[in-house]
Each structure stands twice: as structure tokens, then as C-alpha cells.
Specification:
heterodimer; A: about 120 residues; mainly beta; 7-stranded mixed β-sheet; B: about 110 residues; 5-stranded antiparallel β-sheet; 11 strands; globular
Chain lengths: ~120, ~110
């Protein structure tokens, strides 16, 4: 079956611009997660959705970052006034139910480069 | 915030050798997980550990959840070329937690 998909796979933008990154979770998965992975590092948690609502957004670095999941399926991570330090791979993951632990299935990521 | 310290950062081994890597933390974790990431892909779960002292195998992989709940190790026996990649430990702080905390990764390179 189809896994988690993310678009675009690569995004190059200029400092100060606005970008949107999209995540399509596995069909039927109610939980969705965004992580950011800088070069040579492990992924860092940004935000977690249960259904349409953000259950934990404690990892968002500042108010330039915002994410939505209006219909409880597709999610969009939005970054305003991008900075060079925002350059990283943005990973999305989904899981079936947020029970004691359900495996988080990761997408291939979107590589964001801010020039 | 919570950090997982993973070692070694990189390993260069011969095909057929066994591999061992570990992960430590100053915080107690409820669940430990080991992931593998190939270039251009997201991490894929290899093994999940739920109880202190638990030893779990998945084919040639073996992982243990430390008794103190502050460490874990992953062993790979008889390495093969497709084992090349970056291995991450990750933890969940408490039951029901959804935020994965990742280590910095161990990059494994295998010489045929």
C-alpha cells in the first residue's frame, strides 16, 4: 500500500520568502507528526496532530512556523519569512492511533534550502 | 531538553563483522526504539523496546533496553552490504507520549 508521501521533495527558496510543505499520511492514520532533520543530526520533533487538532506543538521553534490539518488527513507545514537556518529536511510521519505506542511511519522528507 | 547521546558517530567495518552501537541519556525513557535511515528516505523502525531489561531480536539485529531505563544498545551480527546506513536510537519519555526524541545517529559503512 501507499506510504507517507511528501511534496515537494526539494524546495529552494530565498531568505524572507514563504513556503508550504505538504504531507499525505497513510490512509486511515489519525495521528500525524512533523520533524525537522538538520544535516548530520537526528530528527527533532516539531508538532503532533490527533485528527484535525494540534495536540502538541511544543517543538515549533518560533511563530514563523505553523501547521494545519483541516480535514484530519493532509497536513501543511507553513514557514513565513524563511531564514537560512531553516534549511533542513522536514519529515512527516503518521501512525494508526496514538495509543500506548504505535509505530510512526515516516515519509521521505522535503529538503528545504534557503539561500 | 532531553538528549540521547549515541555512539559511535561512525563505524567502518568489513562485511561479515558484528556491529555494536549504544545510546545513553540522563533522563529515564519509557520506550526505546531503533531506526535505520537510508539516503533520501525517512527513518524505518527496526526494533521497539518497552520494558527495562528487555532483550529483543529481529533477524540479525538484537537490542536491549537498559535496566536503568537510561540506555540501550543495538547489535548487528554478520553484517552485509545492505546494512549500510545511519542508525538512530529514539525514545519516548512516558507511556502515551508521542514525541520521539532521537539520538545523533551512527553512520555505518561496510567494506566488501
Amino acid at each position: 500500500g501507499a506510504g507517507v508521501s511528501q511534496t515537494p521533495s526539494n524546495k529552494v527558496t530565498e531568505k524572507g520568502k514563504y513556503v508550504e510543505l505538504r504531507c499525505d499520511p497513510i490512509s486511515g492514520h489519525t495521528a500525524l507528526y512533523w520533524y525537522r532533520q538538520s544535516l548530520g543530526q537526528g530528527p527533532e520533533f516539531l508538532i503532533y496532530f490527533q485528527g484535525t487538532g494540534a495536540a502538541d506543538d511544543s517543538g515549533l521553534p518560533n511563530d514563523r512556523f505553523f501547521a494545519v490539518r483541516p480535514e484530519g488527513s493532509v497536513s501543511t507545514l507553513k514557514i513565513q519569512r524563511t531564514e537560512r537556518g531553516d534549511s533542513a529536511v522536514y519529515l512527516c510521519a503518521s501512525s494508526l492511533i496514538p495509543a500506548m505506542y504505535n509505530e510512526q511511519f515516516f515519509g521521505p522528507g522535503t529538503r528545504l534550502t534557503v539561500l | 531538553g532531553q538528549q540521547l547521546n549515541q555512539s559511535p558517530q561512525s563505524m567502518f567495518i568489513q562485511e561479515g563483522e558484528d556491529v555494536s552501537m549504544n545510546c545513553t541519556s540522563s533522563s529515564i525513557f519509557n520506550t526505546w526504539l531503533w531506526y535505520k535511515q537510508d539516503p533520501g528516505e525517512g527513518p524505518v523502525l527496526l526494533i521497539a523496546l518497552y520494558k527495562a531489561g528487555e532483550l529483543t531480536s529481529n533477524g540479525r539485529l538484537t537490542a536491549q533496553f537498559g535496566i536503568t531505563r537510561k540506555d540501550s544498545f543495538l547489535n548487528i551480527s554478520a553484517s552485509i552490504p545492505s546494512d549500510v546506513g545511519i542508525y538512530f536510537c529514539a525514545g519516548l519519555l512516558f507511556q502515551g507520549a508521542q514525541k520521539l526524541v532521537f539520538g545523533q545517529g551512527t553512520r555505518l559503512t561496510i567494506n566488501p
